[in-house]
Amino acid sequence: MNTIISFLVHVLLTIAVTALVVNYIRPYLRKVLVDLCGTEERAQFWTVFSNVVLVGLPGILALNYRPEAVTLEELFFEIAGRLSGTLAGFLFGLVGVGFVVSIFALFAPRPAKAEAK
Fold first, then answer.
1. Phi-psi sector, 108: left (phi>0), alpha (psi -120 to 50), beta
2. Is 10 within 8 Å of 62 (Cβ atoms)?
3. pLDDT value at position 16?
4. In-domain check, residue 57
5. CA triplet 34, 38, 42: central angle to 5 degrees?
6. Following DSSP, what letter does each residue of 46-105 receive, concatenated?
7. What is the largest CA-CA distance in the chain?
8. How many domains does the chain have?
9. Span 77-88, pLDDT tens digits
10. 81 found inside a domain
11. Tell me: the pLDDT tens digits for 31-61?
């Protein structure tokens, strides 16, 4: 297989997997961010920021891939190994976003709860 095609397969596979996971967690993240930020506009900004980090970080890591495999079988396992590294980058970004949201949640002002009658 051509090295350029294998490079593109790796990059596109990385972006596709991370985009699918980001689409899965987006509604949950958005609900938390609306609660923490107080307005839709602020929550929208932080949702977009999180999406860029969660797709961009693995994408940058994927661009560092240089195919060295000779056979198709070697290429398959090489791409699988590199994909695990880029997905580790995704998890690193996800933990980073989760850490920032958690810290913000600890210090965000909360409205006083109405007393139960």
1. beta
2. yes
3. 92
4. yes
5. 70
6. HHHHHHHHHHHHHHHHHTT-----SSHHHHHHHHHHHHHHHHHHHHHHHHHHHHHHHHHH
7. 74
8. 1
9. 888 888 888 888
10. yes
11. 888 888 878 888 888 889 889 988 888 888 8
